[in-house]
């Protein structure tokens, strides 16, 4: 895909690490001018432009978007990849865990949508890809806040896609399953946790992974790039689940 996005301007939230980083990197390698947004950028160097941003802060997002669009008034692709995970049984979740999960996972995307939709409408073209989760498709014990936020994010994204479709803007989602990121590894409590996840946890009603492996962040990024590319020119309002068959097509 070298050069496929040459001359295009791409924004990726959550670009400091994980899926967001790999997505921003993939776009950069495909020729795009990439700006990555995140609360922090832990690596010493990044091959794309970086902007420190709290996507949950509506005022900050508005100011940063206004500045970015003033400097470069075109936006070809927006990728919403910022997200957090707060685990716990529903009745033990704190108010902060619940509210922070929705503020970032749903509110962050809403803040970006609200400040870029006018640009997309004026252009009459563009692509938006939002990173949701297979947890929006299949309930997981201990993930009520995360799953509910990703389900809300899916609904929000599809609504935005419907509102922008008449302007030639495509809006899709990818819903990763277990992927080899810091977020995933933070859930692993034993040396064989990866293999346990692949086999499944029958006692917790969590399905295994039929394909027999954990996804790599780049596998998610490649699907994002496809959905943003001209090869997906007639695809909008879709949610591509990338979980190795874990949700059995749900």
Report the major sheet. Answer: 7 strands, parallel
Q: What would you give as the CATH superfamily? A: NAD(P)-binding Rossmann-like Domain
Q: How do the SSEs run, as a string of H and E?
A: EHEEHEHHEHEHHHE
Mean pLDDT: 90
Strand content: 5-15%
pLDDT < 50 stretches: none
Radius of gyration: 17 Å
Binned, the helix content reads 25-40%
> Can you tell me the CATH class?
Alpha Beta
Strand order of the largest sheet: 3-2-1-4-5-6-7
Shape descriptor reads globular
Q: Give me the CATH architecture, please.
A: 3-Layer(aba) Sandwich
**What is the fold-level CATH name, i.e. the topology?**
Rossmann fold
Describe the structure.
With 250 residues, this protein is an alpha/beta fold. The protein has one domain: Rossmann fold (3-Layer(aba) Sandwich). It is built from 8 helices and 7 strands. A 7-stranded parallel sheet has the order 3-2-1-4-5-6-7, sandwiched between helices. Strand 5, helix 5 and strand 6 form a beta-alpha-beta unit. The chain is globular, with a radius of gyration of 17 Å. The protein starts with 8 loop residues before the first strand and ends in an 8-residue tail after the last strand. The mean pLDDT is 90.
How do you describe this structure in short?
By secondary structure, the protein is α/β, with parallel strands linked by helices.
What brief labels describe this structure?
single chain; 250 residues; alpha/beta; Rossmann fold; 40% helix; globular
């Amino acid at each position: 895909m070298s050069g496929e996005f040459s001359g295009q301007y791409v924004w990726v939230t959550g670009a400091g690490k994980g899926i967001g980083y790999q997505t921003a990197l993939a776009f950069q390698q495909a020729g795009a001018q990439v700006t990555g947004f995140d609360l922090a950028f832990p690596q010493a160097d990044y091959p794309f432009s970086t902007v420190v941003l709290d996507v949950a802060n509506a005022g900050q997002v508005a100011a940063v978007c206004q500045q970015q669009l003033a400097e470069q008034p075109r936006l070809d692709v927006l990728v919403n990849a910022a997200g957090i995970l707060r685990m716990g049984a529903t009745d033990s979740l704190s108010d902060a865990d619940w509210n922070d999960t929705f503020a970032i996972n749903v509110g962050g995307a809403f803040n970006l949508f609200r400040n870029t939709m006018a640009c997309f409408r004026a252009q009459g073209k563009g692509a938006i890809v939002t990173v949701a989760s297979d947890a929006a498709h299949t309930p997981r014990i201990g993930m009520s806040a995360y799953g509910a936020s990703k389900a809300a994010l899916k609904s929000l994204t599809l609504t935005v896609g419907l509102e922008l479709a008449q302007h030639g803007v495509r809006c899709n989602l990818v819903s990763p399953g277990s992927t080899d990121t810091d977020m995933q590894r933070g859930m692993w409590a034993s040396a064989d946790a990866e293999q346990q996840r692949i086999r499944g946890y029958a006692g917790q009603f969590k399905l295994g992974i039929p394909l027999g492996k954990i996804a790599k962040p780049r596998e998610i990024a490649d699907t994002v790039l496809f959905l943003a590319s001209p090869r997906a020119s007639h695809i909008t309002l879709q949610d591509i689940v990338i979980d190795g068959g874990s949700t059995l097509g749900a």
